[in-house]
Write a structure and sequence with these properties.
By secondary structure, the protein is an all-alpha fold. It is about 55% helix and about 0% strand. The termini are far apart.
């Protein structure tokens, strides 16, 4: 693809945003929640986990812990067991209970609604703060960049300064420059949906992608083979073992002893 001017990239990004709006007009956060506190807890639990797993865990959690004070008073050992299936349960317990204590102590039990205050909570970085601000409070302070958004931003050539698709900070900065602020929260949710349904990590479905005409990577990505498909077949493995164990096949060991 020829070098794209900033103006052309911005035009293309806006076409992509419009196409996503047509595809996913109701795109929203997939995590179950009915309050800012519930969304905050669910988002912390979703790190290195799936929305499906978190959504199975939180109904019982939300029924038991209804306020920040409830979380702050929770027994860490008990809480670890309750969220165990989400993974990294010890660190997540520290984050959730620590955030709850600070909310009680400094914010009168209410989840703060500014980026500055949210990122002061234990376990809350910019990505989590963006989810809460954009989804619950309706504030477009940034763009959520998860694995799907990072992957699609690179495939769509909308992130030109980031080192790779995991460079969330630069990816967010790039997207914020070329997408209207009013679309920031929606764009994150829509790209996540598109990444799950169409542009998967292993096998993007370019033939049924509505963004293909604006995607420099369309039809150029080979399906990523799974580790099992790259493994040598049984016959080759047996031949390799035979070669290693047959007499005379192994190289002579170097005598490491010093001359007497």
């Amino acid at each position: 693809m020829a070098r794209e001017s900033e103006a052309k990239r911005t035009e293309r990004a806006q076409r992509i945003a419009q196409a996503l709006r047509a595809l996913y007009p109701d795109a929203d956060c997939a995590l179950k929640h009915e309050s800012a506190l519930q969304l905050l807890v669910a988002t912390i639990l979703s790190a290195q986990s799936t929305d499906e797993t978190v959504n199975r865990v939180v109904p019982a959690l939300f029924a038991k812990y209804r306020t920040a004070a409830d979380y702050a008073a929770a027994d860490p050992a008990v809480f670890e067991g309750e969220i165990h299936s989400t993974g990294f349960f010890r660190q997540k317990t520290k984050s959730v209970l620590g955030a709850a204590r600070r909310i009680v102590e400094e914010y009168r039990g209410e989840v703060p609604d500014t980026m500055e205050d949210l990122v002061r909570l234990p376990g809350v970085a910019r990505k989590t703060a963006n989810v809460v601000l954009g989804t619950w409070f309706g504030k477009n302070e940034g763009i959520v960049v998860d694995t799907h958004v990072g992957r699609l931003a690179h495939r769509l050539a909308l992130a030109w300064r980031s080192r790779n698709e995991k460079d969330a900070v630069r990816i967010e900065q790039d997207l914020m420059e070329i997408v209207p602020r009013r679309e920031w929260t929606f764009l994150g949710h829509a790209l996540i949906l598109h990444g799950r349904r169409v542009c998967s990590a292993r096998k993007p479905a370019c033939d049924r992608c509505a963004l293909a005409s604006d995607c420099p990577s369309a039809f150029r990505l080979e399906a990523v083979k799974s580790p099992s498909s790259r493994a040598p077949d049984p016959a080759r493995r047996r031949a390799a073992r035979t070669a290693r164990t047959s007499p005379g096949s192994a190289p002579a060991r170097r005598d490491r002893r010093r001359p007497s």
